[in-house]
Amino acid sequence: MSLQGITLERLKETYARYYVPNNAALIITGDVSAPSVVAAAAKRFAEWERGPDPFQALPHPPIAPLTGQALVLMAEPVAHATILVQYRGPSADQDTAATYAADVLCDVLNERSSAFQKRLVDNGLFQSVQCAYQTLNHVGPITFSAETTPEAVASALNILVAELDELDALQDVTDENLVVAKRRRLLRTALARESGATLAPNVAYWWASGGIDYYDSYEARMNARTIDDLRQFARRFIVAQPRVMAVLGPERAIAQVRALFSSPPRAP
């Protein structure tokens, strides 16, 4: 509905407000000379006029917190059942330390040999379970996505939610798990920086979400997280916190979930 309501005039107004040089960054990677790039940019963008600060005239409105649990059910002719459980996460601007804990926690939980994966995936209940946190300047979502069979979807969702509601126990998580996650993260970062085609959009994303200082100190701050940091994060943002659950599956799977949550809250 929001997209359908957008007019050409609204697009022009948005472009004029936000697409100004004082709200932009030029990011260039590769075998280039910094002086030549600066000279070329000055020439190319010389006529691009500075505009008013778009966030001073129209500050970003606060994002209302979730107040309870919501369930969204989608019946479609698909072969597998997909589950999403999403929480309201921290802000890179207002709660920076928590964003690092979010990323480290997801790294630990996603490790194939982790106790979390063994309890949920290795026993055959799920085909996959992944944790993700999206770093954003305001509120970044924490998402647990999982796939299971249509026959097991109701019990799988119930077990996943129970696992998340006790996540602060960090059952069987050790300092060695943090070391493994750190090594994998360093490898991913090194590979990403090898290619200018991936480095430029990566830096652009961090500039727009957390800022360049956030990007520059990211690895050091991630490596400083402790198990207690992860436990506190889970307690604040996940354990028994308001959430939105969504299930996509064939009608027979959706009927199981509907029966499990006989009177689900209305979706937001």
Number of strands: 5
Counting DSSP H or I runs of 4 or more residues, the number of helices is: 12
| Uncertain residue segments | 264-268
Strand order of the largest sheet: 1-5-2-4-3
Q: CATH superfamily of the largest domain, please?
A: Metalloenzyme, LuxS/M16 peptidase-like
State mean pLDDT (0 to 100 scale): 90
Question: What does this entry look like structurally?
Answer:
The two termini are 14 Å apart. The chain has helices at 8-18, 34-44, 54-57, 96-110, 115-122, 153-164, 175-194, 196-209, 212-216, 218-223, 227-237, 251-260; strands spanning 69-75, 81-88, 128-133, 141-148, 243-249. The protein folds into 2 domains: 8-57, no CATH class; 69-260, Cytochrome Bc1 Complex, Chain A, domain 1, CATH 3.30.830.10. The model is unreliable at 264-268 (pLDDT under 50). Helix content is 47%, strand content 13%. It is built from 12 helices and 5 strands. It has 268 residues and is of the alpha+beta class. The longest helix has 20 residues, at 175-194.
